[in-house]
Amino acid sequence: MFRLDGKVALVTGGNGGIGLGLARGLAGAGARVVVAARNAKKSAAAVAQLQALGAGGALALEADVTDEKSVGALFEAVAARCGRLDILVNNAGTNIRKPPQALSLAEWREVIDTNLTSAFLCSHAAYPLLKKAGRGKVINIGSMLSIFGAGFAPAYAASKGGIVQFTKACASAWAADNIQVNAILPGWIDTELTVKARAQIPSLHDSVLKRTPAGRWGAIDDFRGIAVFLAAPASDFVTGAAIPVDGGYSVQA
Ligand code: NDP
Predict the structure, then answer these.
(1) Does some domain include residue 47?
(2) Domain contains 53
(3) pLDDT value, residue 253
(4) Could you tell me the pTM of the whole model?
(5) Is 138 part of any domain?
(6) Lower CB count within 10 Å: N or C terminus of the chain?
(7) Is the C-beta atom of 114 inside 6 A of ligand 1?
(8) 127 is catalytic
(9) What is the CATH number of the domain that holds 103?
(10) How far is the CA of 17 from the centre of ligand 1 (A)?
């Protein structure tokens, strides 16, 4: 129910942070993991880690998920090198922290393209491969800002709200193809993205600790279990869901 032997999983932004945590979970359950990101050096280090977990055949492919041609080439390479695709994780993401009145159109587009349009491009390109496999899993990464607003993150909140609705649309469209599509909504997790956030917002570290019932920031390995669940037959009747992995942050008044 929880094994992924023989399955191929593509994780965008799988070379660090939450993406690497998800990739470690999938590799640990037996999947062959393809890490897709721009920084080749960081991706090579991630693949070495995945191989050390015993996941033979982990590989890195360079791609910019905001670029349609690059995404097309990525999925062609997956088909050529791995022969199949069973699991897609749309995890790549970024943020530009400014109030709406200070955000330029170029900055808006950069965040929307990286966080939301990328999920469309990759899901669109993955669909024929998942359909051919006869079953498939798509896991999209949302955020607490899929639920809440934040004055410093208008484009990010719009992209992450959009991810949840896009997840529901794909879940409805592809259920008949035996493809389940779900979202994970991470709480506050210690990664490069939030190191930057903590530098920009000095009170953030303590306010997250105070608001999180678990009493700690999340770690990337907190995502291994949910990755396996949503990628494995265990979740075959779960689709269109948005599951918080947040130490209780979203249920605390
Ligand atoms: P990181 O900054 O650590 O990782 C971001 C990843 O995205 C990197 O692997 C980066 O790789 C990749 N990436 C960014 N832009 C592109 C691009 N154009 N093409 C391909 N890959 C790209 O951030 P996190 O691990 O924190 O974030 C991962 C996801 O989790 C994001 O979607 C984020 O919004 C979400 N999230 C994070 C939270 C947190 O607290 N950390 C909370 C809620 C959601 P490279 O630079 O090599 O391309």
Answers:
(1) yes
(2) yes
(3) 84
(4) 0.98
(5) yes
(6) C
(7) yes
(8) no
(9) 3.40.50.720
(10) 7
